[in-house]
Amino acid sequence: MQLLSRSFVVLAALLIPSLAAAQRQTITPPGVRPSATLSQAVRFGDVLYISGQIGMARGSADTTIQAQTQKALENLKAVVEAGGSSLANVVQCTVFLVDLKDFAGMNSVYTKVFATEPPARSTVVVAALVTPGGKVEISCIAGVPK
After folding, report:
1. Going edge to edge, which strands form the sheet with 41-44?
2. What angle do helix axes 103-113 and 65-82 make, rounded to 10 degrees?
3. Do the beta carbons of residue 139 and residue 51 sit within 8 Å?
């Protein structure tokens, strides 16, 4: 009996990592080039983990917090939809702001997108974003309906 139990434990240890790997899927929305250093999102089972989306587009001169928040949310929407879900299924967001004074401007756009049943949210003020001129970055977690 003990030999059978040990065999089961060894078999389970070998199978569980491969089952987990089979559930993990990298998500890249259409029109976005995959990166060697990060995934736009990772779907694991019925959950999407979306990387931070910045609020700037190449060639965009709009530097207002409202415009950058709108663009970050549009980017977020594209990634969530590429993962088979929608903004209605977002359950948690983290907003990174470079300047606390931009909170009201960010919030005015954010609350229009998540007008009813908003996701849980944390807002963090950071020293800088990786993208020069960036004022806001938003990451989130979303469920994927069956």
Report:
1. 24-27, 41-44, 47-54, 136-143, 90-97, 120-125
2. 40
3. yes
| Chain length of the chain | 146
Tokens standing for 11?
A: 């078999």
As a whole number, the mean pLDDT across the chain is 87
pLDDT in tens, 123-144: 999 999 988 889 999 999 999 9
Contact partners, residue 27, CB within 8 Å, separation at least 6: 39, 40, 41, 42, 43, 48, 79, 82, 83
Percent of the chain residues past pLDDT 70, beyond the cut: 82
DSSP, res 118: P
How many other CB atoms sit within 10 Å of the CB of residue 135? Answer: 24
In angstroms, rounded to a whole number, what is the distance separating the alpha carbons of residues 126 and 99? 8
